[in-house]
Structures are given as structure tokens and as C-alpha cells.
């Protein structure tokens, strides 16, 4: 008896329900962002008298939204640059060269996919404190940039699939290892690198736990911590909590959906051996 069509139908149904619920939550949150605090509390599910942008103005003027936004953007860009540089060089070494304990090194990075940063936060916190990076955005960047497991895995598989003729041709032309990597191998990996950037961007942008532990100064905090500040007194700041959630969530989701095709293409290039 073939159960594959039935299982596929059940999986598709579950995914459709999950997607519909997620879109409903996002739509409802966006809808509420255009309503006043009085309407949110007194007529939560009703139709508003008028849609207005007062909450957005309040977020930018009173809540200093741009400061949190630029903090998040800086951490995102710096972390991505470090991740791409380190993971591409590590993956190139593992994928193109033969050495002792090669499989053990790759296994080390694969094991990293199983353990979140929360499991080691105490020694990480102590280490960051001892090197003087506590309450510094660089401390957050270093911790987040250490998540190399997924990028290394995808790029290693990609570099392993590249024909050796490309490497040998570069060598015949007199290129050294660094020149071969930067001018030949790295550009060829651009689809995988682009996918990694998009996937990691969503994770880093929405990162809450690490900035919460590492950052104490309000001037250095990120967007998720700004939203937490509003939700600590939700009845008083419910309007700011709604509009802040929209401004922090919707743009990165739009970016992800716009480039979802590129993401799938890059993951397929780096995750399937041919």
C-alpha cells in the first residue's frame, strides 16, 4: 500500500494551516498598528473609526526607534561580514584539501547545529566579560558570528562539488592559494553565500537572547529589546508595542520573501551532491 500521497496531503494541510495562522497574526498586528491606544483597549477586534499614522510618529519621535534600528543594522552587517569571511575560508579548506582528521573537523561543525548558544551562555558571558566586551556591541557580534555550522556545511558541500580543473587552471596561470580562493572559488560560491546571508539575516535581526545578556546600556540595545521594553508595561505601551513589532518584523520578512527563490537556489547548490 502506497502511503506517500496520503502523507504528502497531511503535510501540505499542516503547512497551509501554519502559514495561514502566521499571515493572520502578521496582518492583525499590522492592522492594530494604525489604531490608537484607546481603541486597542476598548474595541480590540472592532473596526477603527479612522486609520492614522500617529503611532508611527510616536515611535520615531518619542521612542527613538532609529537608534535601535541602526544598532540592529550595525550588528547584522558586521556579523554577516565575519560569518561569510570565516565560513568561506574554513569550508574551502575542508572541501578542497585532503588532510588528517578532515571528517572529524567537519563533524565538529555539524555537531554545532545541534546545540544552541543558550546551552553555553554562562561560560560565554564570563569570557566576554573577562576580555572587556560586556555591554559592547562587539561582544554580541563575536558571539553571533561564532555560529558557523550551517554556513560551513553548505559551503563545504559546494566547494567539494567544484571541478578540480578550475583549481588546476588557476595554479597553471600562476595564482597562489589566496588569489585562487578570492578570484575564482569565492565568486563561484556567490549563490550559496547570498542564501546564507538572507537566512542568517533573519536569525540575527530577530536575535533576542544574546543582546539581552550582553547589553545593559539603553543606547546600545537592539529592536527586540526595544519591543521587550514596551511589553513590560503592555497596557500602557500597547500602541508602541504593536507598531514597534510591525517595524521590526515586516521589513525583514518582505526581504526574505522577495529573495526566497535565490535562497532555494543557493541551498540547492550547496546542499545537494551531484
Automatic annotation (TrEMBL):
Species assigned in the record: Cohnella abietis
PANTHER family, sorted: ABC TRANSPORTER PERMEASE PROTEIN MG189-RELATED, ABC TRANSPORTER PERMEASE PROTEIN MG189-RELATED-RELATED
SUPFAM superfamilies named in the record: MetI-like
Keywords for the protein's UniProt record, in alphabetical order: Cell membrane, Membrane, Transmembrane, Transmembrane helix, Transport
Gene Ontology cellular-component terms listed: plasma membrane
Bilayer-spanning residue ranges: 12-31, 68-94, 106-128, 140-159, 236-259
Domain ABC transmembrane type-1 residues, every copy: 69-259
Domain of life: Bacteria
Family: Belongs to the binding-protein-dependent transport system permease family.
Name assigned to this protein: Sugar ABC transporter permease
Membrane topology note: Multi-pass membrane protein
Keyword set includes Cell wall biogenesis/degradation: no
UniProt GO BP: transmembrane transport
Record bears the keyword Magnesium: no
Coiled-coil annotated residue ranges, if any: none
Location, primary (coarse class): membrane
Subcellular location(s) per record: Cell membrane
Pfam family, one: BPD_transp_1
